[in-house]
Specification:
Helix content is 67%, strand content 0%. It is mostly helical. It is elongated and about 55 Å long.
Length: 213
């Protein structure tokens, strides 16, 4: 969805790696995206990345660390269009609409696995992987904060009523995104997701805007 994290791997001493770390992280991210954190084994990851188990642990340290790098790759390489949609429009309602529509195209457009990596890949985890679930939750809640900041900017610009509950509306927008991501995984078409985005945009417009002077 929208949050950007620093995905730089720490430098390690020793022989130089014989593989492209960024490319390997991207391949791992697609596997996590499709099957979830617990649905992917280290053997599956090394096979997809084309590296040995020794190289895997030397480069990434653990499956959990690789997952965090994969989430950062997702934000950096995949969701740029969604971030641009939120910030590239001066008026807040079109910005929200563009963001939801860009998300619908991402979730079900066919270029990537269905849904959103952050919304679906780390939700169901066992007790031993609670830290992974918390990490994904923190990223999803960061999206709420970004939505709220954009809505608050709308208040400052006179596009949003000062009485609007920007926190509740930001939670609503995030819930719509998560719901759309899950729906995409369930086979809902991009056209239907775009219709959902339009309906949610109408809800936002009704609750945010006031007549222009």
């Amino acid at each position: 969805m929208i949050v950007v994290e620093n995905g730089n791997m720490p430098r390690r001493r020793g022989r130089p790696r014989s593989f492209d770390v960024g490319d390997a992280i991207g391949k791992a991210a697609l596997l996590f995206w499709e099957q979830g954190y617990e649905g992917v084994s280290v053997d599956q990851l090394t096979a997809a990345m084309g590296i040995t188990t020794q190289s895997f642990y030397a480069a990434f340290g653990s499956k959990r660390k690789l997952y965090e790098e994969a989430l950062a790759w997702y934000e950096r390489e995949v969701t740029q269009s969604v971030r641009d949609a939120l910030t590239g429009e001066k008026d807040v309602v079109p910005a929200v609409r563009n963001t939801l529509e860009a998300s619908a195209r991402l979730f079900a457009g066919g270029k990537y696995p269905l849904g959103c990596m952050r919304s679906t890949a780390g939700i169901n985890t066992s007790r031993e992987n609670e830290a992974v679930a918390r990490y994904a939750t923190d990223q999803r809640m960061a999206t709420v904060a970004i939505f709220r900041a954009r809505l608050e900017q709308g208040v400052a610009d006179g596009q949003v009523a000062e009485a609007a509950d920007t926190h509740a509306l930001a939670l609503y927008l995030n819930a719509v995104l998560v719901g759309m991501a899950v729906a995409a995984r369930d086979g809902v078409t991009m056209e239907d997701l775009l219709a959902t985005a339009e309906l949610a945009s109408s809800v936002i417009q009704h609750n945010l805007t006031r007549p222009r002077p």
